[in-house]
Specification:
- The chain is of the alpha+beta class and 461 residues long.
- Helices cover 50% and strands 15% of the residues.
- It folds into two domains: 276 residues, no CATH class; 161 residues, no CATH class.
- It has 18 helices and 14 strands.
């Protein structure tokens, strides 16, 4: 029988007996905590060897850059703690850079989670902990004092908690279709931020949301002998024909058409019709992100009516989630499907060309991929533009956004009942964030030491 709201709320309150809302404040690293560098080295074994030093180089730019690449390390740190049992579709890597702007199917700009490489079903608190810890680490990088950092941390959790209360009181379809549009964020900030700060935010949005297919055409291609071609910028961007021999290229070209058809079948019929209006032109390997560096990522250039009508698709390798060793695997034959289904569960508006496929690598090894548009009005946080006031406002937006993702995939009534009306959970997670940021700095220093000793090879990225 379908549980009543009262029964769902009782389940949430019962979870307090399993995990006190104040419990996260007591976090300490486990006595048998794995060496953080060993964790990264373990991930490197399944990645492109020549790209791994770039990953380390990007992570060593700062403790915040390290945090972005350390999802596997944090997952191992979260695993030993008692769990609420209140399951949602986790982002698995819900730090502040993995929220951002993209264009919905109606071309309005929306704000949402935008990275699902590690998505898996698990306890809701894991995502909230990673989000709040990221604000503490970012606040330190920006030179904010402890008072302002704690305010941003508390704001992120408070926003999550209050939004979950709203979703618990909302109709089911209203929760499902809710979305946060950029225009609404700017309108809110207009009333809360000084004009000078607001102008900075608007300029940032204007500059960063022009990352679309036309921008990609301008930055990533050139005309050679009258034909549009992807530029070569090794090792960050390398056309396929430079990675394999001419004989291998012919074999892979044939395989690529099969891969393309396999991906096409994962789309709805109307999306297939749209895709079929573009012609397959060229493929290149691209280095993206921080934590993702070394996984195989390909971009595909397709052209429509002419050379000025582009579509760029990104095929990104989907390995097992870093959460899987602690939460178990799930019933997907393809890891790319895991990513896509997780995104569909948590986003009200998403890329219309989102799909998955399986493809042979240049060495012939079959690998899972998910596919999306490379740039579709995408933008992420510019931490350098966030002062104490705007950091807190950004934390509020991210907290509400994460709550919506969890309300879509979990039980908002049970979650709201667990969180309650008090600030107990807010303060516990803010304290956790401080302790975890300290640990992150120690882990960053460990990677720095490994680089200095020659244990790991580092290259600028």
């Amino acid at each position: 029988m379908h549980p009543t709201p009262a029964e769902r709320a009782a389940r949430g309150k019962a979870a307090r007996a399993e995990v006190r809302r104040s419990a996260p404040a007591d976090w300490e690293p486990a006595a048998d905590r794995p060496d953080p560098v060993e964790v990264l080295e373990g991930q490197a074994r399944t990645r492109v060897p020549e790209l791994v030093p770039i990953r380390y180089g990007r992570m060593l730019l700062s403790p915040l850059a390290f945090f972005r690449g350390a999802a596997a390390i944090m997952a191992a740190d979260l695993a030993p703690a008692p769990r609420t049992g209140l399951a949602v579709q986790l982002s698995g890597d819900a730090h502040l850079f993995n929220f951002g702007v993209f264009a919905a199917s109606d071309r309005r700009l929306v704000f949402s989670l935008n990275d699902f490489d590690e998505t898996l079903t698990g306890p809701f608190e894991w995502d909230v902990k990673r989000l709040v810890a990221s604000f503490e680490v970012a606040g330190r990088e920006r030179g904010l004092d402890r008072k302002h950092r704690r305010k941003a941390n508390l704001t992120a959790v408070r926003s999550y908690r209050l939004a979950m209360q709203d979703f618990a009181q909302s109709r089911t379809l209203d929760v499902w279709y809710a979305r946060l549009e950029v225009d609404a964020i700017v309108q809110q900030w207009t009333t809360e931020v000084r004009k000078k700060r607001l102008d900075r935010v608007k300029r940032s949005l204007a500059k960063r949301t022009v990352k679309d297919n036309l921008r990609a055409l301008d930055k990533l291609t050139e005309v050679v002998d009258g034909k549009r071609r992807i530029v070569s910028d090794p090792p960050l961007l390398v056309p396929l024909e430079e990675l394999v021999s001419s004989a291998e290229l012919e074999q892979m070209s044939s395989a690529l058409h099969r891969i393309y058809e396999s991906y096409r079948r994962t789309l709805l019929v109307d999306r297939r019709q749209l895709l079929d209006r573009f012609g397959f032109t060229q493929v290149a390997r691209k280095v993206v992100g921080v934590g993702s560096v070394g996984t195989r990522t390909w971009i595909v250039l397709l052209l429509g009516r002419d050379d000025e009508d582009p579509l760029f698709l990104q095929l990104k390798e989907a390995q097992s989630s870093v959460l899987e060793p602690f939460l178990g695997g799930q019933d997907y034959a393809n890891q790319g499907q895991r990513v896509v289904e997780g995104q569909r569960l948590t986003q009200a508006a998403r890329d219309v060309l989102l799909g998955w496929t399986r493809a042979p690598d240049t060495d012939g090894t079959e690998r899972d991929y998910y596919v999306r548009q490379l740039w579709d009005g995408k933008a992420s946080a510019d931490v350098e533009a966030l002062d104490a006031k705007t950091m807190a406002l950004y934390a509020e937006v991210c907290g509400r956004t994460l709550a919506h993702a969890h309300a879509r995939s979990g039980d908002p009534i049970a979650l709201a009942a667990y969180l309650g009306d008090s600030k107990t959970f807010d303060h516990a997670l803010a304290t956790f964030a401080e302790a975890y940021a300290d640990q992150n700095e120690r882990d960053y220093a460990a990677l720095r030491s490994a680089a200095d000793s020659g244990r790991v090879k580092v290259e600028p990225g």
